[in-house]
Design a protein that fits this description.
This protein is an alpha+beta fold and 449 residues long. The protein folds into three domains: 2-70 and 411-448, no CATH class; 75-101 and 162-285, no CATH class; 107-152 and 286-381. The chain has helices at residues 2-27, 73-105, 108-124, 129-187, 193-212, 275-311, 356-368, 370-410, 414-448; strands spanning 37-43, 62-69, 215-219, 225-229, 236-238, 246-251, 257-263, 266-270, 312-313, 324-326, 333-335, 346-347. Strand 3 and strand 4 form a beta hairpin. Helix 2 (73-105) runs antiparallel to helix 4 (129-187) and helix 4 (129-187) packs antiparallel against helix 5. The two termini are 16 Å apart.
Length: 449
């Protein structure tokens, strides 16, 4: 009779655990990062009271063999890889959009056009003061546009530095969290709810890490994870033994970016191929290239205009003085002339009404190609931005597909869980009935005595 009670009691305990697992699945169906659990039940051996792997041992009760967590390392890796690619592209888009705003916000191309058109007005009436004043005003406007465009690019570079430092800090925080999880997994009971919860947290952190950099993951039998940043050939960042590193970032004015991983006193170069860090490197290179080209256009423009001034005579017959002055950087431009009379419209010996030297300015407009180069700079960035958006659309679809494939395995299906809930409830009730029958039978025997 005691065996019958034991069988019933074992069923109540086992199916109560199964019901708890199923209830957890239902409650966490919409929880990000939650992987479906199943309760594995085994029959108890009559001889030893241990879990039996043999189907011949029947009728001796049931016990919980473990809580299994649905997982697939290959599908997890596909999600992380797709996420790293998408994050790189989306980050690149952010900086390309910033560059576009910087290049167009001050309307540099329009200001250059206005400058050369104002010079044509002076050529039409070289002695009139109004066109000369307008040309000086246009000169100040184009100088300001160069400066504003450069400052906007510099601000984007500063914002990029801040973002990169923040990403490095996030990596360090996530790495420390993963190291703590590794420690917990090392002492967690295998196939337990506690282990499953830690594995959920581990995989969420790995997904977050892959959004910052492409990673290579190695897992031991306990579920503890070692992570290399920048792929399998990249430097170690977190070890299964609990060591964790940190990342540093440096950017040169030309846009060259370098990352390094510091672990246990050693520094290793990091070349991310995916994630936000790779997108930051792409953005820095684009910002640096745009800044360099802007400097070139500004230098050629100022040097060319001042050279034309030097070959002519102003309204008072004096040799033309520089129209522009340059400060510490090429785009730090100001108007050097105090009066429109200083504009050297005439050729040497041409007289006050001569406008021959302004023909040299028009020729400079064509040969220098300042307006065309400015338009090309904007167009090149716009083309790159459009291409990145197209790639992002494709990568987003790939990422969604990878998540869907993973969720088919690890996600919670409420219909299936409802069936399991009903099945385990019935089994629980049946086990309770076994206990009740055993008690009634035992009481009947006692009454007979």
């Amino acid at each position: 009779m005691s065996d019958l009670l034991s069988v019933g009691a074992s069923g109540v305990r086992a199916y109560q655990s199964a019901l708890t697992t199923t209830s957890d699945n239902i409650a966490n169906a919409a929880t990000p990062g939650y992987a479906r659990r199943t309760t594995t039940l085994r029959e108890v051996s009559a001889a030893s009271g241990r879990v039996s792997q043999s189907v011949s041992a029947t009728g001796n009760g049931v016990t919980v063999f473990g809580i299994n967590r649905a997982a697939d390392a290959q599908r997890d890796g596909a999600v992380r890889s797709a996420g790293a690619d998408l994050s790189r592209t989306e980050t690149s888009i952010t900086w390309l959009q910033g560059i576009e705003t910087a290049l167009t916000g001050a309307q540099l191309g329009d200001r250059l056009t206005s400058f050369f058109n104002a010079a044509k007005s002076v050529a039409a009436d070289p002695t009139a003061s109004t066109p000369r004043a307008a040309l000086l005003e246009s000169s100040a406007s184009v100088a300001s546009a160069f400066g504003s465009t450069a400052r906007a690019l510099d601000q984007i570079a500063a914002d990029l530095d801040t973002t990169a430092e923040s990403a490095a800090t996030s990596l360090e925080t996530l790495g420390a969290s993963l190291a703590r999880i590794n420690k917990g997994l090392g002492s967690a009971q295998p196939n337990s709810s506690a282990q499953a919860q830690l594995l959920d947290q581990r995989d969420q952190i790995l997904d977050q890490l892959s959004a910052l950099s492409d990673i290579a993951v190695t897992t031991d039998a306990s579920g503890r994870t070692s992570v290399n940043l920048g792929g399998a050939a990249g430097p170690a960042f977190v070890t299964a033994g609990g060591d964790v590193g940190y990342v540093t970032y440096v950017r040169t004015p030309s846009g060259t970016v370098s990352f390094a991983v510091h672990l246990n006193g050693n520094a290793s170069s990091l070349n991310p191929g995916g994630g936000a860090l790779a997108g930051i490197a792409d953005g820095a290179q684009r910002i640096g290239a745009a800044r360099t080209e802007l400097n070139r256009i500004a230098t050629d423009f100022v040097d060319g205009v001042n050279a034309v001034q030097a070959t002519g005579r102003d309204l008072d017959g004096n040799p033309g003085a520089p129209l522009f002055a340059v400060g510490a950087v090429a785009t730090d431009i100001s108007v050097a002339l105090a009066s429109g009379r200083g504009i050297a419209a005439a050729v040497v010996g041409g007289g006050a009404r001569n406008n021959g030297n302004l023909a040299n300015l028009e020729a400079l407009r064509t040969s220098g190609g300042f307006e065309a180069d400015t338009s090309t700079l904007v167009a090149t960035n716009a083309t790159a931005l459009d291409q990145r958006k197209t790639v992002a659309d494709a990568q987003n679809a790939i990422h969604d597909g990878a998540i869907s494939a993973r969720d088919q395995l690890v996600g919670v299906n409420l219909d299936s869980e409802a069936v399991d809930l009903l099945r385990f409830q019935q089994a629980y009730q049946a086990s309770s009935r076994v206990i009740q029958v055993a008690r009634e039978t035992f009481q009947t025997i006692l009454d007979i005595r």
